[in-house]
Amino acid sequence: MELSELEALLDAKLDPIKATILKLEESNEKLIEILTIQARQGENIKHIREDVDKCVSEHTTIFNRIREVEKDDDSKTWDMFKIGITAFVTGIIFYVMNMALKGGR
Fold first, then answer.
1. Could you count the other beta carbons within 10 Å of the beta carbon of residue 63?
2. What pLDDT is stored for residue 104 in this prediction?
3. For 9-63, how does the pLDDT look when each residue is reduced to its tens digit (9 = 90+)?
4. What are the pLDDT digits (tens) for 51-102?
5. 99 neighbors 93 (Cβ within 8 angstroms)
6. Which phi and psi angles does 33 have, rounded to 5°?
7. Distance, CA of 78 to CA of 72 (rounded, Å)
8. First to last CA, the chain
9. How far apart are CA 101 and CA 95, in angstroms?
10. CA-CA distance, 101 to 34, in Å (whole number)?
């Protein structure tokens, strides 16, 4: 076997290995690109979660304020109702006392 034949035989055996190595390198580059994109998406998701948590917190705060206003409003309405009833009853008492003092007229 001559040297040129041996080189041809080795080239024939090494060419598929070289082609496979090139494909693997290309695949690694694509994998790195995909991982980079996923890392960016992970950061975006993190920011979205923070925004959602902030919105939920603000919603809860606003909802609690609305509930407090409703409680205060109901309480104020009830207080006004009690004052009205008290004034009405006081008016009746004064009327009856006035009638009693005037001698029932």
1. 10
2. 55
3. 888 888 889 999 999 999 999 999 999 999 999 998 898 888 888 888 888 888 8
4. 888 888 888 888 888 788 767 766 777 778 888 899 999 988 888 888 877 7
5. no
6. -65, -45
7. 10
8. 148
9. 10
10. 98
CA distance 70 to 100: 44
DSSP 103: T
The residue written with tokens 């598929």 in the block is: 16
User: According to the model, what pLDDT value does residue 105 have?
Assistant: 53
Structural element, H or E, at residue 80: helix 3-101
Mean pLDDT for all residues in the chain: 85
For tokens 């006035």, name the residue.
98
Give residue 103's region: left, alpha or beta (phi > 0; psi -120 to 50). Answer: left
Residue 41 three-state SS: helix
Q: What is d(CA 105, CA 91) in angstroms, rounded to the nearest whole number?
A: 17
